[in-house]
Amino acid sequence: MSAEKTYVEDVDRSFYDFRFEDRDNYRVSSGLTEEIIRQISKEKHDPDWMLEFRLQSLKVFEQMPMTTWGPSIKGLDLQNIVTYVRPNTERMHAKWEEVPENIKETFERLGIPQSERESLAGVGAQYDSELVYHNVRKEVADLGVVYTDIESALRGEYADMIRERFMKLVPPTDHKFAALHGAVWSGGSFVYVPPGVTVEIPLQSYFRLNAPGAGQFEHTLIIVDKGANLHFIEGCSAPKYNVANLHAGCVELYVGENATLRYSTIENWSKNMYNLNTKRARVEKGGKVEWVSGSFGSHVSYLYPMSILKGEGARCEFTGVTFAGAGQNLDTGCKIVHDAPKTTSYVNTRSISKSGGISTFRSAVVVTAKAENSKSSVSCESLMLDDESRSDTIPVMDVRTNQADIGHEAKIGRISDEAIFYLMSRGLSEEDARALIVSGFAENVSKELPLEYAVEMNNLIRIEMKGAIG
Amino acid sequence: MANELVFIKNLSAKAEEKEILKSLSLSIGRGETHVVMGPNGAGKSTLASVLMGDPAYEVTGGSIEFDGRDIGELAVHERAKQGIFLSFQNPIEVPGISLENFVRSALERQTEKKMKIWEFRKEVKRVLETLAMDPHYAERDLNVGFSGGEKKKAEILQMLLLKPKFAILDETDSGLDVDAVRTVSKGIEEFQKDASASLLVITHNAAILSALRVDAVHILVDGRIVRTGGKELIEQVGREGFAPFLEETE
Amino acid sequence: MEKIINEPIAGTFGWLHVGGTKVTLPDEIKEQEIALAKGETKTVFLEDDGSLLSIKAKLPENAKLHLILLRRSEAAKSCFTDVRVRLEDGAEFTWHRFILGGKETYDNVSVELAGKGSRFAADLGYDLKDEEKADVNCEAIHLGKKSESRIRSFGVLAKKAGKLLRGTIDFRRGCAGSIGNETEDVLLLDDTVHNQSVPMILCTEEDVVGNHGATIGRPEERLLYYMASRGIDETQALELLSRAKLEAVLHQIPEEDIQQTIREAKGWT
Fold first, then answer.
1. Using CA of residue B97, residue B98, residue B101, residue B105, what is the dihedral sign?
2. C60 Cβ partners below 8 Å, 6+ apart?
3. Domain positions in chain C
4. CB A251 within 8 A of CB A280
5. What are the domain boundaries of chain B?
6. ipTM of predicted complex
């Protein structure tokens, strides 16, 4: 009988104890003052409108509640957010010796040279990478492409172009950390590709993000004009160590008529990072945005690149892989809004959970009544590597037209023993066999990456899979 | 021409920017059975699809007259109402609708009259018996989980129940076992009993045709009819294949 | 009494409004506890009458409960049902829900597959039009080893009808060898409708297989062509397919008389 009793208490989430509507709506005073914002703005030589913008954003930030879903960010000191924005300068100039051992080891395994390691870790000067960056800049400048840091562009000849679009796709009211970004953003890239120009080599923000002080609240604004074509690569696969462990960047992409933009990211922040990044693209008639996204690092991630298909025939492709290991809670996915006829979206994601890691695929496909003859296909697969981890799939489809064709497929499972046995029978160790299978599982992303990135990504998987036999 | 049921003149059609039918002409009289043979990729199935009005193909020239009327602008279901039937190579699965209910609905739409269920059941039973098919066949969901042979048999069953004026059998005989071939042949014989019903049999093999009454044989190569003759053409193809006809394209 | 109901186990983006739904519950509450003996099989057929219906059942070893709920199209009042079931070893629960119309329908079905080899099958069929709304939350919580769940829905929406279905398969640690499948098939007949689908798979157990598939919108082009080739135009084809979708759910019910009652409620002879 006692078992019976326990049952009633345990499982009976009674019909009557519904939750009332007022949610945890706690606000904190962030310690971030108007004065601090004015100071940041002054140091950056902002135009007046930008100072206004920052102050408005601060107000929004203070008033906005946190989301009620998603991974916990309790580890963030919200009462003292100012320490993330203005860490004491001594800590900013971290020493190589202070970089955590696991990161140093990863550098070692990836075979990254010493000078690069220091700059990646955010502690060194920018010898080689600055040079490469300048070279790339010159090459594309000859095509009429603008590739520069956004702060100086804000004061230059593209000032109006930026003002028209800055945080228009991702308004500060979008969510609490978008507002924070609006108030304290710093550094980032501005790219403009003129009509009809195809940029043959991928542009890599890796070189920019390593600039001192950048990479935490950086803003990326890319405009690909009519018929132009660009591949932009953000980040790199070596871990970026940052003493201040909050990243609230923002990426805004404007894809013009018949233009194509591929935006690739291999995100591998060190594992103390709260990565609360917001990315969004607006695609005009006949244009196409392609997202290639690998999430490996961070302690906590909230990352859902959004594509707004605004013009007839606009397209979106999203290819993603998320690998959550020990101590990681990576909540990733994408959002797509079909808001014009004949728009198409194609989503293909994989997620892997291991050693207590949590990975969540979260998506939203919204099809408005305007989107007749549109198509959307979402496929997500999850792999559980052990039984201490967690893997969730949380998609939403919101459809308001009958003239569309919306499909969704999700699968969850584990590596089959037969597959391991088969590979081992051909001479692979169990560890290698598992790593090989996981690499194959993540191939949807690696095959979309430039070769050197694909190689590094597979190296990363191998590193993550070390000692994964349990 | 008045006696022709199907009159195709200089018909050209393309799919996905590729021209497949190139000014093809062909006419079929009432009560006649014609055979179209040709190598793979000649355009045989395209001809069948275009006659039915498949939206996957675009007619770029020429005309199709059926029963004295130009049907080029008619929607697919209108063509069916006029009395055209196509036996599909790969019939679509329709979960939740039994074969019997599907055919009954189709007949009601075509004739615009309510069917008496019992009479219809009797008719279904009679046709199933003629074809020596399992009586439970009609209760199964249309084509769902049917084998290739079963799907073809179900198409023939529909043909006999719908009683079209003109039936097109698109490779209905391909990939069938002996038993299914027998059912299909039996079905065709049964259909031919109606003296005014016309038939177009599209095939690339001769086996099924041996026992059949055939009025004309057309060889289709590269989107055109390159030779028209009698049953002797079937034997020639059986002996020599299509090689002798390929030279006739130019 | 204002409450938030049908709140799924996991939440998501707030702007989509697919979390719980705020409603005013009726004062009259009908509670029903269904008790079965070990190995007993029982079928319960109920029709909504606009009250709040709360059904609880504990199914001991190898017991089988088949619950069939019918919502008639002419029902004018909002209707709330809440079904909570716990399954012991080898127990089976089948939930058949027909929403043939009615202004607003709220359904919650939450099943704990606690026992080894327990099974849960959910079949939802709906046909909504004229601003009718259905809001459904269905949860299969796998606790026991080798438990199996299957959530299936077929439905049709027309003329400003709205449907929100949250279907969750939750594999909890320890439910090794379990399988969960969810399929959803929605036919939308015009562009005034609103369909929301939230098919979640939550998982903290390695040794499981979970699948979800959904198709929303128009039937395939080739299917419409095939039907047209037999003389059935698009409007008629959609009508036929709508009926087919509900029939497919009906066929799952072994009791002919219950099937017939539902057909008659739909006006099918």
1. positive
2. C36, C37, C38, C88, C91
3. 2-219
4. yes
5. 4-90+164-249
6. 0.92
What is the C-alpha to C-alpha distance for residues A272 and A250, in angstroms, rounded to an integer?
Answer: 20
* Average of per-residue pLDDT across A198-217: 65
Verify whether the Cβ–Cβ distance A412 to C210 is below 8 Å: yes
Neighbours of A211 (CB within 10 A): 18
Distance CA A207, CA A229 (A): 21
Which chains have 3 or more CB–CB distances shorter than 8 Å to chain B? C
Residues from chain B contacting residue C226 (CB–CB below 8 Å): 88, 91-92, 94
Residue A7: predicted pLDDT = 34
Q: Check if C214 contacts A (Cβ < 8 Å).
A: yes
Let me know: does B49 contact B57? Beta carbons within 8 Å.
Answer: yes
Does the pLDDT of residue A164 top 50, yes or no? yes
Min CA distance, A91 vs chain C (Å)?
A: 36
Residue A86 CB neighbour total at 10 angstroms: 16
Give me the pLDDT at residue A214, please: 44
Q: Which two tokens stand for residue A224?
A: 């690909």
pLDDT per residue as tens digits for the range B31-54: 999 999 998 889 999 999 999 998
Percent of chain A topping pLDDT 70:
77
C217 shares contact with chain A (CB less than 8 Å): yes
Joined together, the tokens standing for residue C28 give: 């009259």
Q: Pairing relation of β-strands B198-203 and B166-170?
A: parallel
In a 3-state reduction of DSSP, which class is residue A119? helix
Among the partner residues B88, B91, B105, nearest to C232 by beta-carbon distance: B105
With 0-12 / 13-18 / 19 or more C-beta atoms within 10 angstroms meaning exposed / middle / buried, residue C173 is middle
Strands C2-5 and C21-24: antiparallel
Nearest residue of C to residue A389, measured between CA atoms: C204
Enumerate the β-bridge partners of residue A150. none
Could you tell me how many CB contacts below 8 A there are between chain A and chain C? 172
Say if residue A21's pLDDT is above 60: no
A128-145 pLDDT, tens per residue? 344 455 566 777 888 999
The bridge status of strand C208-217 relative to strand A404-413 is antiparallel
Question: What are the DSSP calls for A224-258, one per residue?
Answer: E-TT-EEEEEES-SSPBP-SS-EE--EEEEEE-TT
* pLDDT bucket at B248, cuts 50 / 70 / 90: low
Report CA A441 to chain centroid distance, whole Å.
20
Q: Give the C-alpha separation, B186 to A210, whole Å.
A: 79
Residue C209 contacts B where some CB pair is shorter than 8 Å? no
Does residue A291 contact residue A319 with C-beta atoms inside 8 Å? yes
**Of C156, C220, C223, C230, which to mutate for an interface test with B (greatest number of B Cβ within 10 Å)?**
C230
A 10 A CB-CB count for C194 gives: 18
Fold designation for B4-90+164-249: Rossmann fold (3.40.50)
Q: How far is residue A429 from each of residues A421, B4, C172, C226, measured CA to CA in Å?
A: 10, 75, 31, 53
* Contact residues, chain C, for A404 at CB < 8 Å: 216-218
10 Å Cβ neighbour count for C258? 17
- Most confident listed range (A113-122, A142-151, B190-199): B190-199
CA distance C105 to chain B (A): 25
Q: Round to whole Å and give the CA distance between B120 and B163.
A: 13
- Residue reference for tokens 């039918």: B21
Give residue B16's identity as a one-letter amino acid code.
Answer: E
- Residue B29 reports pLDDT greater than 70: yes
Closest residue in B to C247 (Cα) is B96
Q: Compute the distance between CA of residue C132 and CA of residue C129 in angstroms, rounded to an integer.
A: 6
CA distance C174 to chain A (A): 8
Residue A24 has pLDDT above 50, yes or no: no
> Chains A vs C: touching, with 3+ CB pairs under 8 Å?
yes
Asked if chain C contacts chain B via 3 or more Cβ pairs within 8 Å, the reply is yes
